[in-house]
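Blinded run. Sample ID left blank on purpose so nobody reads anything into the name before looking at the predicted structure. Input follows.
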Amino acid sequence: MKLIIEVADKRADFVKELLDSLPFVKTKTITPQKAQFLEELKKSVAEVSLAKKGKLKLQSAREFLNEL
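Blinded prediction complete.
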């Protein structure tokens, strides 16, 4: 199982050391930029899923280009 835990910066080292001391836990640190990217990717996948089900109206390519 994978868990994502958000920890205050000032406590991050302590929590990481604590988790690393447990033999059955593997830790992996990601950058805030990667965390933001993953969150945005998750939202995008959800939007695609809604669009496929017809629950979200998408813009046509022409409408998109007209906005530019």
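Unblinding after everyone has recorded impressions. The first helix runs from residue 9 to 20.
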